[in-house]
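Incident log entry.

Two folding requests arrived from the same account within the same minute. Monitoring flagged them as a possible duplicate submission, but the sequences differ. Recording both here for audit purposes.

Request one:
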Amino acid sequence: MTIVVTGATGHLGRLAIESLLAKGVPAAEIVGIGRQVDKIADLGITVRRVDYDDVDALRAAFTGADKVLFVSASEVGKRIPQHTNIVTAAKDAGVGLIAYTSAPKADTTDMKLAAEHLATERLIAASGLPHVILRNSWYLENYNVPQALEHGLFGASGDGRISGATRADFAEAAASVLLGEGHEGKVYELGGEAFTMAELAAEISRQSGRTVTYTDLTPEKYVEMLVGVGLPTPYAEILADSDRAASRGALEVPRTDMESLLGRPVTPLATAVEAALS
C-alpha cells in the first residue's frame, strides 16, 4: 500500500506521517509532498518537492497511490484553484481514496473561512473519487499560550464554545481513517474538549500562577487590533469573522467522532496548556 500525504512539510502533515509510522506503516509506503522538504527529510519516507499549483507534479506524485491525505492549502483566496489541481491530479492518477481536511460544519455554517472548504468538498464529490471528509475544528496551537502570559487573550468569540483539539489528535484521527475500513463516504466532525476563551484564560492562569484575562471585542475592533500588530487586513478579517461565527456555536462539535477514530479520549485542554507552558 502507498499513502501520499500532501502539505507534508506543514505541522499537521508531518504529525500525520509520524502517526502513520507509529501505527506500523513502513516508511517505504509513505510519500510526503510539499515545498520545504528539508522539514521532513529526517522521517525516512519518500519525499517529493511539489507545489499545489503544479498539476503535472501532483499527478506524478499521486501515481500508484492507494490513499491520499489531502491537507488543505493554507493560502486563503488561492485554495480553489490549488484544490482543483489536487482533485484533478488524484482522479487522473486513479487514487483509491482521498481524505480531505475541511472546516467544521462546512455545509451549514456562515463562517467565511468554510466557503472554500465546502467548495472543495463538492469538487471532490463531483469527481467521483472515493473520499472521506475530515472537518477539523480549531487547533489548540492557534492560541499562543506564552504570549498570553504577557498580554492576555483577545478575540470576538464571546461565550461561544470552541471544540479545540491538538494537532496531534487531528493527525492521529486522519491516520486512523487512512488505515481503517468503512470510512468511504463518511463526513466526520472532529473536535476536542469544548471551552470558552474565558475558560482558556482561567486554565492558563491556574497552571501558570499568573493572572491571564480574556478581552472580548467586537469583530470590527478585533480586526483593528490584529492589523495594528501587523496582520494583513484580509487575514485579520477572516480571523475576526471566525470568532463572530464561534460566538454563535460554529466551532463547537461533539467529541464523539474524534474519540471514535482515536479509540481513546481526546487530549484534555489542561494537558495541552501544560505542554504549551513547558
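Request two (distinct sequence, not a duplicate):
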Amino acid sequence: MQTFEDIRIDRPRPGVLVATLDRPARRNALTFAMFDALQRLCDAVAADESIRALVVTGAGAGFCAGLDLDDAATLPGMGAAEFLRGQESWAGAIAAFRRLPQPVIAAVNGPAAGAGFSLALAADIRLAAPTARFNAAFVKIGLSGGDCGTSWALPRIVGLGLASEILLTGRFIDAEEAARIGLVNRVVPAEDLLTEALTLAADITANSPLGVRLSKAVLRVNVDAPSLEAALEIENRNQALASRTEDMAEALRAFREKREPVFTGR
C-alpha cells in the first residue's frame, strides 16, 4: 500500500489494517496535508478487498487533537469561497470513513478533540482507554458546534438532548461518561486497547465478507429509514443477495460439521 503523510500503516493480522495518526508531539493534530492523506487512505482501503476491517488510533498519549494550531491560524485570512472549498474537503475526508464498505474501529487512546472527535464519531465502533476525552471544540473558537459530521452522527449515537449539550457547551466528556452515555462501546485498560480492537476486528473478519459489508450498509441506510417497511425492503434484498453466495453455503456446512467456515468472498 502507498504511504500517507503522518499516518503509519500496519497489517498485524490477515484482513485487518491499522492506521495510526503519527504526530505524537502534537497530540496527532491534523494538518491540511493530513486531511488529504486521510482521504487517500480511505480511497485505498475501499479499493482493497483484502482489507476486511480498519482500526484507527493515535500514537503516543493522544488520539487526535483536531486541526493543528499552525494551520488553524491561517483560517481567518481565507476568503469565504476558499474557506468553503477547504471545509468541504476536510469534512469529506472524515465522512469517507463512514462511507467505507469495511467496518471501522476507533481505538481512542487519549484526547479526541475537534476534528479528532469527528473522526472518532465516523467510526462504526469506538473503544476507549481511561485517558480518552472527547469534545467538540469548534464552538469554543467562534465556529459552529457542528463540523465534519458531528451534528449528524452525535445525535444518532447519544440522542438529541445530550448531543445538544455537548455541541453547545464544547465541554469535555471523559471516558467513564462516554461509556455511560453510549458514546463509546466500552472502556478498556490502556495497555489492552489495541489488543482489544484487534480482537474485535478478528471477530468481525471471521464472518463472511459480503455479510459484513451488507450489515454495515444496512445499518448506515436504515438509521434514517422513514418506516419499518422501508427498512425491511433493504434487509430483504440484502438477505436474498447473500443467500446466493458460496459463502453462505459454506457457513451452513461448517455449522453442521462443527468446524470454522472457510470464506472465499464468493
